[in-house]
Amino acid sequence: MAKSESDGTTSRRTEFSLYQNGVRRSAGGNVAVEEEIILSVNGQDLVALMCTPSLLEELALGFLYNEGLIGGVGEVVSARVCRTGRCVDVWLHKDVELPALRTLTSGCAGGTTFEDLRDVRPAPASDLMVTPAQVIHLARRLQEATFSRYRVRGIHISALAVGEGLLFVAEDVGRHNSVDKLAGLCLRHNYPMRDLILLTTGRVSSEMLVKAARMNAPVVISLSSPTSLSVELAHRWSIALIGYARGRSFRVYAGGHRIVE
């Protein structure tokens, strides 16, 4: 059974005007919640994240891990959401040199990273292989999670899988945030991040692939498309990069040796 999030903070009801056949009427429905959350480390503001306000402690831990600022929860003294719910305070056992405060948006320009791609180390060697049937099955599981659990449009869903089952599932208006939340869930549950399959509904950009490498995921499956730089990095790091996994078809952009009959 996949661990997931659904705590009522992901959507909010709003009123709107609906036009059908030129006729206007009043209606209402839910929209995805987006808020600014400040991540503070050792009492210093690090970054303002535009995100869905759920699993915030996991988001903070996953962001710090994927940015290379921590190597595990053993370096963390505490991580807690402040009383206002608009910030997460993380205290570490060590001093770290923090970059200047930046705001990371949840949209197409989101996912700005402090990492220099040239300095990122690839994921360790892995023998993990997947079959076409496994890819199709996992993509279908992700779609089921998207449509059955989360009925609000505009939300990205990401998951970590083992075999044919989803291990952790996270959602956010920002696709990068949803992946950071997965890393945080692994850290919180003390689950090793190695030889896991990363799935996402969002586009796989270079920053997304860097996060996958940091999380030691040798297989990345998206319901959407990759970018040219993510394909280049996947080739360099021997990561299977799969896109447009829909229905009974998918495209393999890199790491084809990990797809076995």
Structure description:
- With 261 residues, the protein is α/β, with parallel strands linked by helices.
- It has 2 domains: 84 residues, Ubiquitin-like (UB roll), CATH 3.10.20.10; 127 residues, Cytidine Deaminase, domain 2.
- It contains 5 helices and 13 strands.
- The strands form 3 sheets. It has a 6-stranded mixed sheet with strand order 9-8-10-11-12-13. Strands 5-6-3-4-7 form a 5-stranded mixed sheet, with helices on one face.
- The radius of gyration is 19 Å and the shape is flat.
- The relative contact order is 0.16.
- The N terminus is likely disordered.
* Spatial order of strands in the largest sheet: 9-8-10-11-12-13
| CATH topological fold name of the largest domain | Cytidine Deaminase, domain 2
How many domain units?
A: 2
Regarding CATH, which class of the largest domain?
A: Alpha Beta
Report how far apart the termini are: 27 Å
* Number of H/I helices: 5
Report Rg.
19 Å
The percent range for strand residues is: 25-35%
> What ranges have pLDDT less than 50 throughout 5 or more consecutive residues?
3-8
Helical content (DSSP H or I, runs of 4+): 10-25%
* Average residue pLDDT: 87
Order of helices and strands: EEEEHEEEHEEHEHEHEE
Count of strand segments: 13
**What's the overall geometry?**
flat
Indicate the CATH architecture of the largest domain: 3-Layer(aba) Sandwich
Derived structural class: alpha/beta
State the CATH superfamily name of the largest domain: Cytidine Deaminase, domain 2
- Main beta sheet, described? 6 strands, mixed
